[in-house]
Amino acid sequence: MSEPNPVDETAPESAQAAPAEGAAPAGMVRTTLRSLLRSGPATAGLVLVAVHVLVAVLAPLLTSYAPTANAPDSALLGPSAAHWAGTDALGRDVLARVLYGGRYALMVSFAATACAVALGTVVGCAAALKGGWLDDLVMRVLDAVLAIPPILALLVVVTVLGAGPAVIVLAVTVVYAPQVVRVVRAAAMGVAPLDYVTAARARGERTLSILVREVLPNIADVVSVEFAMRASWVVLLISSLSFLGFGANPPTPDWGLMIAENRTAMTVVPWASLAPIIALATLVLGLNLSADGLAKAWGVDRVKEAR
Amino acid sequence: MLTFLTRRLLSAAGTVLLASVLVFASVQLLPGDVATQVLGQDATPEAVSALRDQLDLNRPAVLRFAEWLAGAVRGDFGTSLVSGEPVAGALWLHLRNTLLIAAATVAVAVTSSIVLGVVAGLYRDRWPDTLISSLTLAGMSVPEFVVATLLVMALSISVPVLPAVVLDGASAPVADLLPSVVLPTIALSVVMTAYIVRMTRTSVIDVMASEFVTTARLKGLGAWRVVVRHALPSALLPTLNVIAMNVAWLVGGVVVVENVFNYPGIGKLMLESVHSRDLPVLQAVAVVGAAVYVLCNLAADLAAMALNPRLRTGERSAR
């Protein structure tokens, strides 16, 4: 390996290996989009998610009511021309709260998923590439973290640190990063013994550069599918936490919180509970369909999964 | 075989031990003083120091953990800060109540998901599969508290046949609790079935396409016999892991559903202890939860070995 020749020959080879695995970036996006749009359910999923994002962004334009404005004289009204989905026990417009609620759900879920997947990817790749004692240690600790019921871990973090979006993002990261580590580690293990990684090692590249230039591009599909799939569970988990009273603080428009608040008045104003339920279910459905579509388009096996 | 079993048991015990270290550390060591945390910011210094004495906070954490562990192994989880009674008594009582729901849910969900998954797999891409797959997707897209809320709307308010909330305490006899087990069980089964069906369907499709099933068909065996005797054992293998994971998920899902129905189970105990910052109870619940998870995984691995002889010879490589 002291002569320059083999080094020069392996460099272009490793550069070509990436396109062979996942196609050039621009072409990959196009083929992926095309195969996503060809499948009906995947298109429906993307449209659902897009509509949710649009509604969340445009919420102030779509309703003239403030989501936290109390109006005691118009409490517990059924659907009408003034309040399309009625009002809740404090006279707040349910539709306005549902529309604004999407902002909270999307922002917190996106931040939490991104943190969990990023951390999980880095640790998973490091464990797979370094191997040895680091890998053993990481896997032992992960087994223990995974053994603690997620809801309980979340509750402990929230109790110790107090509620609030930042804490929720941290808590979800703690709970879900270990599961991402497992998936990413398995994928990276499949890439690590391949020739282009060996070649990079032989060239004397550092682990970090091998990780970024050789391994990451080739497990990008697994990570993306993991992100999409994880996002739907994060939305569910965060709404469960709000429902239990440990997520968003009361005046915040949040779907889980709304369902918890309006559940007691279900016989009087069923729409106050049904509207946030529909919003939550369509967002998760959209994320699930998109994740399925992505997995199919890239041939990633996403069945072996745990929540 | 025996050495393998011992090793698996030891590793499982190690995982539970490590999990309890993590729980203990995060509850007692993270930020600030536990006594102040329990009593709130405006507690008097005397009250704080009294609680510090009661919790033995003046001694090193390692010693406290060792003592707590020694007690926990013997089934003594300390004393509740709220009720002043031993944690273990309340814990086992609530665990018994939760096991009623859990056992019923596992029985219902596993049976229905295997039946539905096999049907969907055999009728791939035809209407039974489309129907089952759509329902599955719907089930996966709603959180368990929504299913529970909708069930209350339908079966407790519109057609009042089942109780919407449980009024019994934790120590009520099992017979009194039985009617209130039905709705939580349905709510949890719907969500759990949705996840298992997907796995069963995929593995049934895989197995039905394999050579040994073709051979069994060519031998002229009946369709029923091919599916039940030849395909099903192999198809259930990957499903087992998903079932084990879902049983572990149940520990968390049960918290939410018990909250909806006010059911006096381990989930309600957990929430109450979080609300009142009853640390000894919280630790006990967490460790029991971890033990359940580890046991489920162990059971799934052993069942997989029973179903698949090849795994028995690969003991060394099995993790």
Automatic annotation (TrEMBL), chain A:
Biased composition (Low complexity): 12-23
Cellular compartment(s): Cell membrane
CDD domains in the cross-refs: TM_PBP2
Domain ABC transmembrane type-1: from-to ranges: 102-291
Region (Disordered) location: 1-23
Origin superkingdom: Bacteria
Main location class: membrane
PROSITE patterns: ABC_TM1
Membrane topology classification: Multi-pass membrane protein
Protein name, per record: ABC transporter permease
Automatic annotation (TrEMBL), chain B:
Entry membrane topology: Multi-pass membrane protein
Subcellular location: Cell membrane
Spans through the membrane: 99-123, 135-157, 177-197, 235-261, 281-307
Transport is among the record's keywords: yes
UniProt cross-references to PROSITE patterns, sorted A to Z: ABC_TM1 (PS50928)
Main location: membrane
Protein keywords: Cell membrane, Membrane, Transmembrane, Transmembrane helix, Transport
Keyword Transmembrane part of the UniProt annotation: yes
Stretch forming the signal peptide: none
Gene3D superfamilies to which the protein is assigned, alphabetical: MetI-like
Domain ABC transmembrane type-1: 95-300
Protein family: Belongs to the binding-protein-dependent transport system permease family.
PANTHER family per the UniProt record, alphabetical: DIPEPTIDE TRANSPORT SYSTEM PERMEASE PROTEIN DPPB-RELATED, PEPTIDE ABC TRANSPORTER PERMEASE PROTEIN
Protein name: ABC transporter permease
Organism: Nocardiopsis endophytica
